[in-house]
Design brief:
Organism: Cardamine amara subsp. amara
Protein name: F-box domain-containing protein
Strand order of the largest sheet: 1-6-2-5
Radius of gyration: 24 Å
InterPro entries: F-box-like_dom_sf (IPR036047), F-box_dom (IPR001810), FBXO4 (IPR039588)
Distance between the termini: 72 Å
Structural class: alpha+beta
Oligomer: single chain
Number of domains: 2
Number of helices: 13
């Protein structure tokens, strides 16, 4: 059968751009390797600026590290936003690596206290990681489930994506059923003038259960950390013994 040769120039320019704007980054890069025509079009600012702003909405509002966004271009073949996207992707990969190193600083680390994982969450917030950054760099099955969970807490607290968006990412990354132990120590209640023993609550939960609301109490505890009646919170990969901590330790959190 003879092959049918198709000329891109036979399509209206706005239709061609519509095709390009419907593609994800990886598909856009693949299409750009087809010909010189597609390489120039798939690198144009009109396609890459929306991709940049969609991936990093926090950077779309704030100027990160005094880096100026590319100026509006009248030249249709300008590729400044693509270059800027690649630079920012590498920068975010480096920042995520810092978080991973912090959490896994000890090869024997099996658990994290509230002060530690919440510090990692706030560090990610200061770095202004986007949802795709978390999915690419932290939602990995070969990483510790503690890092998966930290990425989840960050998304819920600072990015506020839809639950369906998080669950879709979990399915793509194959971490929905990853299990983590969450334990917290609560101050004993008073009854008839006597304070009861401090209570230890221990739950083994999947990441998907935390997102869907099946473990809403666990999520509340994780987000609040040590506050009011909660004396200690820790996350672990195995069922560790949760013991009371000293008052000085509590104050540090």
């Amino acid at each position: 059968m003879n092959s049918i040769r198709f000329s891109c120039s036979s399509l209206p320019y706005d239709i061609i751009l519509k095709i390009g704007s419907s593609l994800q980054v990886i598909d856009l890069c693949t299409l750009s390797s087809c010909s010189r025509f597609w390489r120039e079009l798939c690198g144009s600012d009109i396609l890459w600026e929306p991709l940049f702003r969609q991936r990093w909405p926090l950077l779309s509002t704030f100027d990160s590290d005094n880096t100026q966004f590319p100026q509006a271009q009248t030249n249709e073949i300008s590729q400044e936003w693509k270059r800027f996207y690649v630079i920012q992707h590498k920068e975010m990969a480096s920042r995520a690596s810092e978080v991973i190193t912090y959490v896994t600083k000890s090869p024997t680390t099996l658990s994290l206290e509230a002060g530690e994982y919440l510090h990692a969450v706030e560090t990610m917030s200061s770095m202004r990681l986007g949802f795709q950054d978390v999915e690419l760099f932290l939602f990995k099955p070969n990483l510790s489930v503690l890092l998966n969970l930290i990425g989840l807490i960050y998304c819920i607290q600072h990015l506020k994506p839809l639950r369906e968006q998080i669950l879709d990412a979990f399915r793509r990354c194959e971490i929905s059923e990853q299990l983590v132990w969450v334990k917290w120590l609560t101050l004993g209640r008073w009854s008839h003038g006597i304070r009861m023993r401090d209570e230890i609550v221990s739950r083994q939960v999947s990441l998907a259960d935390v997102v869907t609301g099946k473990e809403e109490m666990v999520l509340r505890v994780l987000q609040r950390g040590v506050v009011h009646e909660v004396l200690r919170v820790c996350i672990s990969t195995i069922d560790l013994v949760c013991t009371p901590c000293s008052s000085s330790t509590v104050r540090n959190y």
